[in-house]
Write a structure and sequence with these properties.
The chain has no helices and 10 strands. The chain is mainly beta. It has one domain. Strands 1, 3, 5, 6, 7 and 9 form a 6-stranded antiparallel beta sheet that branches. The chain is globular and about 45 Å long.
Length: 168
Amino acid sequence: MSSIYQLDADATRLVSVSKTLVGNNTAGIQVPIFGLTGTVDAILWGIVTTVIGATTTAAYLQLNDSTATPDISLAAGVDISGLVAGSGIYRRGQVGSALEKLDAATGLVTDPAAVNAAMMTIVRLTKKSTATTNVEFVYSTTAAPTSGVIQFFAKYLPQSADGALVAI
């Protein structure tokens, strides 16, 4: 079983940032959340702190190095419309998997995908050597404008001497 949570607590780092969603009837809104240096292994998630607007869809994570935007989760995204405070979005699968949303409008019990599996999957991220590289939250909305706040978290383990994620 591979889980960042099994690593020495002193070796991992936690960073977070809150972002207000303000898209206005637009598809593919890119919101930089973490700046990347070097190489890291990371677990990524977000917790809604203010209810999300009614038509906020196609939410996913990507890396952006100014010329390429490789997906961190499935680019078709997940509909996060109306998620209430306390709800979460989690990267629980591989790159081809959509973010998982857990709506706090009702009580929830969540298990890992399999016995002895991690609750959230690790992704290795590497900065493009010649460009600023960011982790971005991407979403679409048909609202004019949408609303809501998500606090994003990254728990990471540096894999290079300069490996780090910093809040943007």
